[in-house]
Design a protein that fits this description.
heterodimer; A: 550 residues; alpha+beta; seven-stranded mixed β-sheet; four-stranded antiparallel β-sheet; 29% helix; globular; disordered N terminus; B: 294 residues; mainly alpha; MetI-like fold
Chain lengths: 550, 294
């Protein structure tokens, strides 16, 4: 699903310090291992407000951000991604990769138990891998990454697993480091999808105590936790006793709850409230998520977007950087490239591929035959108005107020080039229909979080179009397909980078998306909360090191 | 002109003279202010450019969310658009929704009410039962139902609010028609051999409609509130159209840092409702006075 974000591998603490438009420095929290000044204390209940939830908490089913956020708390991954994209041991103590890239052999830890008391071993990992590639699981994220390449797994001994691939997949280890594919208890999975959705069981620092769909999840700490990853500030069980994880779709309401001390941590504080938040002593953590940036996807099969000149003209005319700065109060950098900085093999030269220029847009449209104008001043060709509709979710929590402002500002910019952008508010059900039927000209708020440049295959390849439904542009180009395929098989890092950069140039030139800003983990929290972190792989909140001071 | 008609108008003249004197004595500032405010809105509808030189859709991202000032009387919104201009230009959408929806509701109501009131026992029974069923739902809920059927747009907003308010009016019309149809002057009209159509047009309808006029004035304010509510819920005008309810919805996200985005469209809805209500009650008093003397 196009809106499904995937995991990214964020390297560093990308956005620790953000300069706000106001000139204020938004300080940030820590990523990875930073800790506050005083000594951590055990105990306490943390109230966390999240913007939305999925009916299923298990990230292996579907695989959307809210599921992975829960997954990050209740499961551990096979491998860990640290700063700079380095893959380190986690549940796997060590591994080897065969020279042809087709066989991975993992030796996993022998001292770990799931929170249901069953033992973690190689067979458990096999169960999870077999499960995500099984179409019956409906694992669009994990399955989309792994299924095309996965042949089978063999348990060589209780703690040694051999994973065989049909085709080399240089993104495999990165993918396995994402919270989207934490290792779950086979006994838990055996209870059936319905039970496992309400209570996925892992080896993580927390386990689920209760779940009220669309309202809240209560997590309690795993007292036996002994598998903290290398980047953790402490080993052993979490400091917190309990997390009340509530779903509050409205950003203004989340913000109010934080300021009234009804919540300790909130997801995605509204950008217009940052200044007030920081002024009153609260803190904001931002963490850039790698992958494909948030933007507006063009469906290249629908007129007038089937003409590359029109797509390019829209990007030239939109003046995204200025509009973004205003709508988001300077809290987001503009991303003009198909990949977010921090994604491996990112091509920095594409950031300014489409500098804002109405005259460039005008000459492209003139050359494409959109030379006449209608009464409203919009361009026409053979009597048809140059009109592009942007549908967006109008239900609570679906479209951030800042995004709606941004779209309206872009609409005004496009008008200068004679392009009529129509904003169409629609409810969630209708929107989902639109997405699944591909009966749209554009997708707003489209992004994909993942820690590999293979996201280009997920979003733009013919394979993704035909089999996974994740290619929202409906773009199909054999040259790109071959580049991406070759890159994924290429074991030589330098050659791989060259292939991926070629692919990025091709995607950028085809103007498949109006790119806007990077996906970010954004958490605001009160001053007595410490040790809030985001994971390096894909920027999911991690509460293992979090503690509350009096 | 029939004897009956003469009688009515005579009585009208005499009561008007009497009530004018009385009204002058107790005339209050409310109705006058209401008329002044509504006149202002009429100007806003007819030619909004008289009131402001800003364009309601002209964005200026560099000046977003600016507080009210001499340059921007009502401040600017999140895209830097002038809120005063949006409120003024929005009057057209909001008022036309109010007026047209009320008129539509009335038209449907008159048809149903007259058929019910004049139809036989069976027809009246059917219409009354249907109205009772519709009454089981709050008008706003009915309107929501219609918006869901027709899709979100200004046109469907008008139809929805109109149809949503129709049952209330229809019941009233039916009651009035029944009350009037047995009045002596209607019987007299029958005796004089007038056709049914003429009796309906010249005798029953004018007499039955009078309370509806008052109700309609009150209804305009109510319709604007309903339409704004639906727009607020995202079921009406699409952004960036300057519709008051939609402006309220958009401003809500910025209420903690920019109160003006929420206050001014909200104030307009309150004021127009107050003005029409105040006027409606004034009309009601006048008509009541006339009625009691007739």
């Amino acid at each position: 699903m196009s809106r499904t974000p995937t995991v990214p591998r964020t390297l560093s603490v990308a956005a620790l310090a953000l300069v706000l438009a106001s000139g204020l420095v938004a300080c940030a929290g820590q990523s990875g291992s930073t800790v506050a000044s005083s000594k951590p204390v055990y105990g306490g209940t943390l109230t966390y407000l999240q913007d939305r939830s999925e009916t299923c908490l298990d990230p292996e089913v579907g695989g959307d951000i809210p599921q992975a956020m829960i997954g990050q708390q209740v499961t551990d991954d096979l491998v860990y991604e640290g700063p700079g994209g380095k893959i380190e041991p986690w549940l796997a103590k060590s591994w080897t990769v065969s020279p042809n890239g087709l066989t991975y052999t993992f030796t996993v830890r022998d001292d770990v138990k799931f929170t249901d008391g069953t033992a973690f071993n190689a067979a458990a990992v096999k169960t999870n891998l077999d499960r995500v590639v099984d179409p019956k699981t409906g694992s669009s994220t994990d399955g989309g990454y792994i299924a095309p390449f996965y042949a089978n797994s063999k348990v060589l001994s209780p703690y040694v697993l051999q994973v065989n691939l049909k085709q080399p997949d240089t993104a495999l280890l990165n993918v396995l480091a994402q919270g989207y594919i934490g290792i779950e208890s086979p006994a838990g999975i055996a209870r059936g999808q319905e039970k496992n959705c309400a209570d996925p069981i892992g080896t993580g620092p927390f386990k689920i105590q209760s779940y009220t769909p669309t309202q809240q999840v209560v997590l309690v700490k795993n007292k036996n936790y002994n598998t903290a990853p290398p980047g953790s500030a402490h080993s052993g069980p979490a400091y917190l006793d309990k997390i009340i994880w509530k779903i509050v779709p409205d950003g203004t309401v989340r913000y109010a709850a934080l300021t009234k001390q009804q919540a300790d941590v909130i997801y995605y504080p509204p950008a217009q409230d940052w200044k007030a938040l920081l002024a009153s002593g609260q803190k904001i953590l931002t963490h850039e998520r790698p992958g494909s940036p948030n933007g507006i996807t063009f469906n290249v099969t629908k007129a007038p977007l089937n003409d590359v000149s029109v797509r390019q003209a829209i990007i030239y005319a939109s003046d995204e950087a200025t509009n973004l700065k205003s709508a988001y109060f300077g809290t987001y950098p503009y991303v003009g490239s198909p990949l977010v900085k921090g994604t491996p093999d990112y091509d920095a030269s594409l950031q300014n591929a489409y500098p804002a220029s109405v005259s460039k847009a005008n000459s492209l449209l003139d050359a494409a035959g959109w030379t006449t104008r209608d009464a409203a001043g919009y361009r026409t060709k053979n009597g048809v108005e140059l009109k592009v509709t942007i549908p967006y979710g109008s239900d609570a929590g679906q479209t951030a107020a800042e995004d709606l402002t941004l779209y309206q500002d872009i609409q005004a910019s496009e008008k200068k080039a004679g392009i009529n952008i129509v904003l169409q508010p629609i409810g969630t059900a209708a929107l989902n229909n639109l997405y699944s039927s591909h009966d749209y000209q554009t997708l707003a708020g489209d992004y994909w979080i993942t820690n590999t440049p293979d996201v280009l295959r997920t979003l733009f390849s013919t394979q993704a179009l035909k089999f996974y439904g994740t290619n929202g542009d409906e773009y199909s180009n054999p040259t790109l397909d071959k580049l991406l395929n070759d890159a994924l098989s290429e074991q030589d890092a330098t050659k791989r980078t060259a292939l991926y950069q070629q692919a990025q140039k091709l995607v950028s030139g085809a103007a498949l998306q109006l790119n806007l800003y990077p996906a970010q983990e954004r958490l605001a929290y009160n001053a007595n909360i410490h040790g809030i972190t985001a994971d390096y792989a894909v920027g999911l909140p991690d509460f293992h090191d979090t503690w509350i001071s009096k | 002109m029939t004897a009956i008609d003469s009688h009515t108008s005579l009585s009208g003249v005499s009561s008007r003279a009497a009530s004018t004197t009385r009204l002058l004595g107790r005339l209050r500032i409310g109705p006058i202010l209401s008329v002044v405010f509504l006149l202002f809105l009429v100007v806003a509808v007819v030619d909004p450019s008289i009131l402001t030189h800003y364009q309601p859709l002209a964005v200026d991202p560099a000046h977003s969310l600016e507080a009210p000032s001499v340059a921007h009387w009502f401040g600017t919104d999140q895209s830097g658009r002038d809120i005063f201009a949006r409120v003024v230009y929005g009057a057209s959408a909001s008022l036309s929704i109010g007026v047209i929806a009320t008129a539509l509701g009335m038209a449907v109501a008159v048809i149903l009410g007259v058929i019910g009131g004049l139809g036989g026992r069976f027809v009246d029974g059917v219409i009354s039962r249907v109205l009772e069923i519709l009454f089981a739902f709050p008008a706003l809920l009915l309107a929501l139902l219609f918006v869901t059927i027709f899709g979100a747009s200004v046109t469907s907003l008008i139809i929805s609010v109109g149809l949503g308010s129709a049952p209330g009016y229809a019941r009233m019309v039916r009651g009035q028609v029944i009350a009037v149809k047995n009045a002596p002057y209607v019987e007299a009209s029958y005796v004089l051999g007038h056709s049914r159509a003429r009796i309906l047009r010249q005798t029953i309808l004018p007499n039955a409609m009078r309370p509806l006029l008052v109700l309609g004035t009150l209804g305009i304010g109510q319709s604007i509130v309903w339409a704004s509510s639906l727009s607020f819920l995202g079921l009406g005008a699409a952004p960036p159209a300057p519709e008051w309810g939609a402006m309220l919805a958009a401003g809500r996200d910025f209420i903690s840092s920019a109160w003006w985005g929420e206050f001014f469209p909200g104030a307009m809805i309150v004021l127009v409702t107050l003005a029409t209500t105040s006027l409606g009650r004034y009309l009601a008093r006048r008509l009541e006075g006339r009625g009691s003397e007739a």
